[in-house]
Amino acid sequence: MWESEEMTYINQHVLNNLFYILVSIFFFYFLYDHVRFFQQKKAHQHVLLIACLSVPLILCMKYPIYIAPDCVHDLRQVPFLIGTFYGGWAVSVPLLLILLVARFMMYGYQFITVAVYVMMCLCGSLFSPLFQRLTRKQRLVASAAMTFLLAIAATVLAVAISDFQVTESYVVDFILVPPVAVLFVVFIIETLREALLIRSKAIKLEKMEVVSQLAASISHEIRNPLTVVKGFMQLMKAKDISAETKEQYMNIALEELNRACMIIDDYLTFAKPFPEKIETLHVERELEKVIDMLRPFANMYGVQIVATLMPATMEGNAQYFRQCFLNIIKNGIEATTNGGKVYVDAHADEKTVTIVVRDEGEGMTKEQLARFGEPYFSTKEKGTGLGAMVSIRIIEMMNGTWDIKSEKGRGTMMKVTFPLLLEK
Asked: What is the CATH number of domain 1-202?
């Protein structure tokens, strides 16, 4: 019964030592992943590694494993060797100093401890460059093998310089357990490193995919009007063409060039950063200006704009704000059939300004709604999808949120919310 309780006690302390080490490893990668400072230079990573590994190194000595009345053990060498293998001299020497100072303060000076850990520091640091060149699987094997060899070397050194007794419990807990613990910790480290690497590659691939889509979109959309211009310019070279026909061709060519310019402007608006000029916007006034600009366009489509605008103020850029809602309301007009209406409502509550644009148009399917805002996706025959993309970009730059709902045959509703500017 006593042996069972003793074994449980020992196992609990072994797990506690492992817990200290693993938490420090997870904390290291948490800070490394979230704090850009530690990603900039190798020296910053070394400082972080020393700080994170020195904590479990001290805790393992403070709360050791009591194997027998005359045998106390801990896993301090595990964080020490992990730091040595991964950081080399830059990490091993500071960790050695921290280990020896903490050991002397807790248990007093002992020459065997100094000799053993200086030997581990020298051998581990010399092994570090080779270790870092190995593959993931090779590191697992090499770390366990090197820890085992260092444990054997430490035992030989201890026997050589003092009257040291090698017992059965010493062989298990000082020679066999540490290599297994190091193998386990290195496996965790390599798994975390691989996960960060895979995520980094995924982000790069996603960015490249976006760039390739935009490049394909630009070439596709610009090539169409330029092809038209090229065709009509070739027709104008004919000798028997009349002045009236030549003027007609010229007007068509100019219209296509203007269309190409509009597409380029939309892309530039999406790509360039938000302007520094931030001002107080009176939402109802800015929307009235947009609606006045679009009324002739709406009349041409036979669409009526119905506005219900309550006074509200917010911070933003007036030009971008007008461009955003010019695109949204214009899309609603183009989607609405002759005799339909487009409703523009603006109101404010305690913290937000809400603007709702609703049309009585043909609406969108769930598949089309899911792709809303993507480049060169549009439900219009000659649409590029850039207007919606630019509007979403502007809303987000002004710290706004948006929500769109649509039903095929029943129209679309776009709800945009901005932070309210409280008048002082």
From this structure: 1.10.1760
